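Response to reviewer comment R2.3. The reviewers asked that we include at least one raw input/output pair. We reproduce the pair for DNA-binding response regulator here without editing.
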Amino acid sequence: MTIRVLIVDDQVMVREGFSVLLNAMDGIEVVGEAVDGREAIEQVAALRPDVVLMDIRMPRMNGLEATREIVAADTDAKVLVLTTFDLDEYVYQALRAGASGFLLKDASARQLADGVRVVAAGEALLAPSVTKRLIVEFSKISEARKLADPAGAGELTERETEVLVLIAQGLSNAEIADRLVVAESTIKTHVSRILVKLGLRDRTQAAVYAYETRLVTPA
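Raw output as returned:
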């Protein structure tokens, strides 16, 4: 199946550049572009993309607000945030709002295509070298809001808690299975149960939850 992508950015050169790169990749098609969050919401409804590449800082409606609305609308579209990392203090909030991960704007063509494929497949884009750092940094900022006794945490089994910690460390299902010496299908079952028990949307929110509730702490 071809992965349908919507690119949202207020800079025309960014939109055109990403369009050229992605349309050159097998199995990926850019079906539309939007210049701000409001237009992104309209385009998601009209075009039904699989993945939305979402910039954060845009006029009229920013990417954070648009991500919240797209996720709240319960569409099949997955939001992949585009960021410069050092400048976008709202990325952490976007992850909490339901974005499936993020990419740096200077990502290579291969990284961009791989990121789109990962998110389209229902996985979270959690590169240990970058995403973990971002989640840790912004979990410090929101520490005052974290729960002393996280709701739902007591419902997890010891193994599920172990899996949640490894998710927050950026490990894939295959890597977690290798670490715990079990079948990958077993890990998928654990992940599904964790998300249901904690009322979370995906692995990204699970990772944010683990940091906010101090199941994982900065090294």
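Strands lie at 3-8, 28-34, 51-55, 78-83, 101-104. The chain has ten helices and five strands. Further pairs are available on request from the corresponding author.
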